[in-house]
Amino acid sequence: MAVSGRGPYDPQNVFAKILRGEIPCRKVYENEYALAFHDIAPQAPVHVLVIPKGPYVSFADFSQTAGDAEIAGFTRAVGHVAGLLGLDEDGYRLLANMGVAAGQEVPHFHVHLFGGAALGPMLHRG
Ligand code: AMP
Predict the structure, then answer these.
(1) What is the pTM for the complete model shown?
(2) SS3 of 88, please?
(3) Where is the active site (predicted)?
(4) DSSP code for 15
(5) Among this protein's residues, is 110 annotated catalytic?
(6) For 53-56, which contacts have Cβ atoms below 8 Å and span 24 or more sequence positions?
(7) What tens digit of pLDDT does each residue of 47-73 get?
(8) What pLDDT sits at residue 124?
(9) Which of 38, 47, 80, 110 is catalytic?
(10) DSSP code, position 97
(11) Residue 6 needs a FRET pair 20 to 30 A away by CA distance; which of 21, 52, 58, 108 works?
(12) What CA–CA distances, in Å, run from 83 to 18, 28, 52?
């Protein structure tokens, strides 16, 4: 079910549980600002989620309330993960769903990193 992206932050959301080690993930990378792990239902040959360590509901929340060091550290981590996955040469797509219109389901800010194939049009045109 889609969530508003406006909070308040729910510490029982699935990504908060992954950050606390309460449920497992297939980890790709971790540093003080970010954790990257494989999406449980991949929609491309490479489909990795990168999440900040802090409790941000959505991109709106993160961009408005995170500190400069967190924003810089997180952004650099996303780029680092793309490189680790070998996607720099062929390219990749980043996507962040914010709120109901975008269909955000997990209320902890995350960036989807897709790659490993030609990814087609940017949006579904139904
Ligand atoms: P969004 O619709 O942008 O909120 O995307 C949420 C994503 O989280 C979906 O692609 C799900 O497949 C993924 N997801 C949900 N639970 C897990 C989990 N336990 N481990 C990895 N990915 C998950």
Answers:
(1) 0.98
(2) coil
(3) 110 (tele-amp-histidine intermediate)
(4) H
(5) yes
(6) 53/19, 55/9, 55/11, 55/16, 55/108, 56/9, 56/108, 56/109
(7) 999 999 999 999 999 999 999 999 999
(8) 82
(9) 110
(10) -
(11) 21
(12) 23, 11, 18
Assigned token pair, 51: 């999440």
57 and 7 Cβ atoms separated by less than 8 Å: yes
DSSP class of residue 1 equals -
Taking CA 72 as the corner, what is the angle to CA 88 and CA 2, rounded to the nearest 5 degrees? 80
Task: Find the 105 Cα to ligand 1 centroid distance in Å.
Answer: 7
Residue indicated by tokens 């996955």: 85
Strand partners, 114: 47, 93
- To test the pocket of ligand 1, the residue of 10, 17, 39 to mutate (highest count of ligand atoms within 8 Å of its CB) is 39
Among residues 20, 120, 43, 37, the alpha carbon closest in space to that of 84 is found at 37
Q: Closest Cα to residue 38, out of 107, 116, 104?
A: 116
> Tokens representing 98?
């914010």
Residue bearing the CA closest to ligand 1, atom 5 = 105
Rounded CA Rg of the chain = 14
